[in-house]
Specification:
- The chain is an alpha/beta fold.
- The chain has two domains: 176 residues, Glycogen Phosphorylase B (Rossmann fold, 3-Layer(aba) Sandwich), CATH 3.40.50.2000; 153 residues, Glycogen Phosphorylase B (Rossmann fold, 3-Layer(aba) Sandwich), CATH 3.40.50.
- The chain is built from twelve helices and 13 strands.
- It starts with a strand and ends with a helix.
Amino acid sequence: MNIAFYRHSTLTRGGDRMIIAYANFLAEQSHNVTLYTNVLDTKFLISSKVLVKRIPARGRLGTIVWGLTHCMPADLVISDIIAMSVLLCVRQWRKVVYFAQDYDVFYYQSKVLRAITQVLYFVGLRCLRLPCLAVSKDLKKDLEHFSPAIGVVENGIDFHTFFREQDMALAEQKEGRKAIVVLGRKDYRKGLTTILKALDLFDKEAFEFWVVGERIQSSLTRARMVSWGYVDQVTLRRILSSADAALVPSIHEGFGLFAVEALACGCPVVATKAVSFIQHRHTGWIFDLAHPQELQEGIATLTRKGSLIDQIVSNGYALAREYNIQQSCQDFEKHLLIIHEKTEGNPG
């Protein structure tokens, strides 16, 4: 197959990791794969077998206009934003596959933008009947309001990349404090900006927060913060392995890839119920964003030595092993082959 991935930016986020992993795998399986992107600034390795084409137009508007006015020579065009998926249908009719990495409604706080996004889902999935692959069973349930024909390909991780490898230099850097890793994303749905004030409750002499990703202004919280910026996968593995816990304060998650990576590195996770595969006091700790004391209790519990924590870490590791990137890649290809066969058999 000739397969195109179309997106505005390809960076160093969980969604970018999955797009690149699938593009690399499909190219290795002898498919012709092209990644169309406007912004390319990633630490993830893109296979030399994947053809990368920069969209020759500036900004998000340029990405939209180029997609509206150009027909890509592909059997399937994969987009992971519902708005872009609908717009691509103008020139790529019956070729577009919506790869749902989250429920896009939760990207926005604005009720107007949420309503518009709901309409786009109705148009894309109900009216245009776009083939859709969701990254989790819970996300599938969200999308089944618009279409019953939602496929599921759960995300996975590479166990050769994510395993426990404590870095003694990082351990010494803590100077006796407990280190909590948090994903630095300012997106509303990731919940970090919502939780910052709650971090003020933590004693700076006892706890510090390691922020991986976007840098957070120190003026936004009185907590002790260490900003790592965007890091490669080896560095992330060592950070997660050397931390005492990982915090996932998401308002909504399509899957929760960061949590799985942490569990695979033996780092216990305190998360909101948005990370649906975490079971309270079994594979991690669940807290409510509206109750900061639950966050305090969770971090205090998970950073305390004892049999309960040992069991949670063990259970979490076993859970992480269920999400294998190789299996995810194979499932992704199978679904694409089925979609392609259907579109070829019904070109109407």
